[in-house]
Amino acid sequence: MAKGIKTIGILTSGGDAPGMNAAIRSVVRKAISNGVKVKGIKKGYQGLLNEEISDMDARSVSDTIQRGGTILGTARCNEFKTEAGQQKGADICRKHGIDGLVVIGGDGSYRGAQAMSRHGINTIGIPGTIDLDISCTDYTIGFDTAVNTAMQAIDKVRDTSSSHERCSIIEVMGRNAGFIALWCGVANGAEDILLPEKYDYNEQNIINNIIRNRKKGKTHHLIINAEGIGHSTSMAKRIEAATGIETRATILGYMQRGGSPTCKDRYYASIMGAYAADILCAGSSNRVVAYRHGEFVDYDIEEALAMQKSISEYEYEISRMLAI
Ligand code: ADP
Ligand code: F6P
Known about the structure:
The chain contains eleven helices and eleven strands. The protein has helices spanning 20-33, 44-49, 83-95, 107-118, 143-163, 179-187, 203-215, 232-243, 263-281, 301-306, 313-321; strands spanning 7-12, 37-41, 53-56, 100-105, 122-127, 167-172, 192-194, 221-226, 247-251, 287-292, 295-300.
């Protein structure tokens, strides 16, 4: 099966995401079943440059599918953005006999993967980020767990918010992308959903909405605010001053990135991991695995990075209509 590939290296890079372990497990076991050796690289590209590399076998990934985080660790590494760092990384791979590499991460990690391919190491990317903000794919590993974790937390805040007839601003992750905020906003029945892609920074609209809803008999007012907009605490103070309604801010933060992955995250990660190992063993390089229109596919990294993904106008309109 393996077209010249003898040893695959695997690393996780950028922000961790629940389900990364299922992807690692699947890459390791599929590669081994294809007759290829696997080496685990700790702490992303930084660990590669530090030569934190060790052999993995089928047992190295036992009892990991249900665990959050990444057993390989992850890091951000500025040195890898330089030509010298990338050359060093490729040389270290060759020194350790690694002729194929799987990188699990987001767009930034894909640029590193692209560099490795350029330097002669066959490299495949797998989409791992809770933000869902990788354009070439409808699904990214970790999103489903993150939105379910956030949704459950928001339900709890909603209970106390209703009891006290308060307004609540709940900040969810997503620096540049509002997918977590949109999904939770709809799933939690929020009255206002603030997305980095859409928010017009007109707080008066929110204030008017709160007052209108109170007159209509709503006992709480839930605002889901994306991290990219931020400032939830000061926003709460301003809204309370303007409306006279007690307003509290809750920032969910890193709890959204942890925890045992959902079935969906484990399943998609498992299929994507095996897919990556297979195309790598078949001789592909400079490609990323994706899930698009109901199918597992792969794209050239250049092409994948040039794609655009935006919040659907229709879904956004529905989210606003449902809050009446
Ligand atoms: P993500 O992969 O989740 O988008 P980052 O953008 O933080 O996360 O990228 C993760 C790592 O990928 C960076 O710390 C760096 O080591 C590597 N990386 C990012 N951009 C580049 C680039 N242009 N060239 C090479 N490596 C990069
Ligand atoms: O990419 C996932 C993510 O959790 C974003 O939503 C968030 O903006 C970012 O990572 C935070 O990263 P860091 O670990 O550097 O604080």
